[in-house]
Amino acid sequence: MRIAFALLAGLLSLGAQAAPADFVSFDRERWPEQLNSPALFDVASRAEILSFARVLHESEMLDEPALKARLGLRQINLTVVRAVRARLWQRLWTSYQQAQRSCEQDASFCYPVESMADLRTQAAVFAEDVGSFYTEWVEPSHQFHTRYLDEQLRKAALFPQTTSEVAKLSDRERNGEELNDRMFLLTFVSGPAPQGGSTDALADYLRRQKLDGIFFVLGNRLQQRRDAGPLGELYAGQCVGIQGWEYRSHAQWQDWQDSLRRSQARVQADLAEQYVPLFRPPYGQRRADGEAFLDSQQLRVSLWDIDAQDDGPLSAEASAQRVLTLMLLWRKGVIQFRDGLPKAQPALEWLLQHTAQSGIGWEGCREYARLE
């Protein structure tokens, strides 16, 4: 009976993990202004917040059968869905308050919103009177946020049977919400690539831009790089966390503890100066009973809240546009790129070019690692 149950749990987890991702981006050309000042960043931020709030409000009108049909699921954890919705509303309210600070410089999308109730009310009607200047943005933004919200609600509906980055399992986990307004952390996963590949080029590009990020490495790929030749200055000036020995769910893997031990030992031995005690779980999947072991290894789970989706059909530019739209929406967070794939660097280049004058900041990887 136990074996049958374990097999069933594994199949359910695999099915959720293997479900086709809804890769979605937003063409920033639909937005009529460049983000060439902090005030214009705030204008675009207020607009995206209201657009997503409208979609979130609409989703609350669905009853349980309708929500199941929309998400393509037979069963949903409605308790978690409601909790995630409540957290999203709180983030939207906080973000909108921050974005309102520049309303004296530019009053676009500044409404008399004094409470979360006001935000809900305004979100339901704001699209009716945005003015002709922003008309071409309204519907594409609505479509993007509808699909993006579905991503989040589907993960919430499966949680905690299938864990993901959509919710934390404890207050010790990090997901970007602990950052200050306008601050973003760059993170990279699934590397390193073979010698001379995309990881080398990306790390070098970051150094030239005087930026740093956290590279969450896979133990087996780091071992392969080490066997092929010296690591040298590959991660010089960067931070290195672990993602386990293989890119594999650590929620159902019997040897998950050994995976963390081996990868941690490899990084500490080869990259002691760059090592930070953070674990990025593949797929965001980790065990609810794993915190004691993580504590014994002096590790903390580091999730993300802005996924570039650069591992699918999106072009590098579309991936960057998705990231920028979510940066405007959440106004802070942890961005996840995949340094083992070639789209990460051109996507990052586009992103830096289009935010250079926007007043945002990039969190230092060591400062983030020290946060409590």
Automatic annotation (TrEMBL):
Domain NodB homology: 178-288
SUPFAM superfamilies hit by this protein: Glycoside hydrolase/deacetylase
InterPro entries: Glyco_hydro/deAcase_b/a-brl, NODB_dom, Polysacc_deacetylase_ArnD
Name of one Pfam family that matches: Polysacc_deac_1
Keywords: Hydrolase, Signal
Endpoints of the signal sequence: 1-18
EC number: 3.-.-.-
An example Gene Ontology molecular-function term: hydrolase activity
CDD domains named in the record: CE4_NodB_like_6s_7s
Enzyme class: hydrolase
Gene3D superfamilies: Glycoside hydrolase/deacetylase
PANTHER family, A to Z: 4-DEOXY-4-FORMAMIDO-L-ARABINOSE-PHOSPHOUNDECAPRENOL DEFORMYLASE ARND-RELATED, GLYCOSYL TRANSFERASE-RELATED
Protein name per UniProt: Polysaccharide deacetylase family protein
